[in-house]
Write a structure and sequence with these properties.
Number of strands: 0
Number of domains: 1
Order of helices and strands: HHHHHHHH
Number of helices: 8
Distance between the termini: 10 Å
Largest sheet: none
Helix content: over 70%
Structural class: mainly alpha
Shape: elongated
Length: about 200
């Protein structure tokens, strides 16, 4: 059993450390500017500086009204622009950018809720597994600990896509925090269960 625990502990440690480093980089060190920003700067700044989804909605509402008005004018003239042409023209371009930012904000907000909920579920597995491992059955306890760290790792796994919004930053901040706490819990399990000590190895031979 000790060899299995060592292998699992090393794998979990490597994954959690690499994830924590990546989230930290994305949140605080990744360059977020481009030489092309000058062409879309006003709208991009509005999206980036929005403090809540309500701020984005206030900006989206007039853009949507302009798009609806433009489409009505074209409809009266018996015309309709293809999507490929619309997406590069105003006010369609701004409306689409704001729509995508709102959708992304809602997605990230949902993901934050999921991380917190399922991480707590993982923590309940962790607490039960630790007690059962020490006082009842090591295999059952180990199974629950594996389930706990599977939850920790999965729900703190990297987010590859996201608009440059404050909600995306909140998501990264949550992932950094929960990854660090998961690492601390892993180190506690390694310490309490004597996974890497010669004494534990000799006692179980």
């Amino acid at each position: 059993m000790n060899a299995l625990q060592k292998t699992l502990a090393i794998i979990a440690f490597l994954i959690l450390v690499s994830q924590t480093i990546r989230h930290t980089y994305l949140r605080w060190f990744e360059p977020r500017t481009s030489v092309l920003d000058r062409y879309d700067k006003p709208l991009k700044d509005e999206i980036t500086n929005a403090a809540s989804i309500d701020d984005l909605l206030r900006r989206y509402d007039p853009a949507r009204k302009q798009v609806d008005a433009a489409r009505q004018e074209l409809s009266k003239a018996g015309k309709k622009l293809p999507y490929d042409e619309e997406k590069d023209l105003e006010p369609y371009k701004s409306e689409q950018a704001l729509r995508e930012a709102i959708t992304d904000w809602e997605t990230k907000s949902k993901e934050i809720h999921e991380i917190r909920f399922f991480w707590l579920i993982g923590f309940s597995f962790f607490a039960a597994g630790l007690v059962i491992y020490k006082k009842m059955n090591r295999w059952l306890g180990l199974t629950l600990l594996i389930a706990a760290f599977a939850e920790f790792i999965y729900w703190t796994s990297p987010t590859f896509l996201g608009a440059n919004t404050r909600e995306f930053d909140r998501l990264l901040g949550n992932k950094v925090a929960f990854s660090v706490v998961s690492l601390i819990l892993l180190m506690a399990v390694i310490r309490l269960n004597d996974i890497f000590t010669d004494k534990a190895e000799q006692a179980r031979l």
